[in-house]
Design goal:
Elements: H1 8-26, H2 31-38, H3 42-54, E1 58-61, E2 63-68, H4 70-82, E3 85-95, E4 98-107, E5 114-117
Antiparallel strand pairs: 1-5, 2-4, 3-4
Helix pairs in contact: 1-3, 2-3
């Protein structure tokens, strides 16, 4: 079987398209959220979203809501803290038999806002 080698440009284009589809599906997301869920580096996620914003496909927002539970929540929030996103717990709710915390998240700096599709 002949396996075709994928060039760096093809990988970048594939990542860009997948990130854009992810944002379309999720609505408002942050760069750390994109990085974590798509298994790409934070600098890659940031670069892709900057390119999409330069093309007018996305716009920046300064805050977002997060619903989290357990160890996954702690890991995500630790990464967000390192990326300059602070969070404030607003409520704790039970859905079926699981407890979730609701957080209001915002930027400590103006560099990496949450992202949503331009309207």
């Amino acid at each position: 079987m002949d396996k075709k080698k994928i060039t760096n440009m093809e990988v970048k284009k594939k990542n860009r398209n997948e990130v854009f589809r992810y944002i379309c599906k999720q609505g408002t997301v942050s760069n750390p959220d994109i990085s974590y869920n798509m298994k790409i580096s934070l600098p890659t996620a940031t670069q892709i979203t900057k390119e999409l914003m330069a093309e007018g496909l996305l716009e920046e927002k300064g805050h977002f809501w997060f619903l989290g539970s357990g160890n996954a929540r702690d890991e995500i929030m630790e990464k967000w803290e390192m990326a300059g996103i602070e969070s404030e717990e607003k409520a704790t709710i039970m859905i079926e038999r699981y407890w979730f915390n609701i957080y209001y998240c915002r930027l400590k700096t103006e560099n990496s806002n949450s992202i949503k599709i331009s309207e």
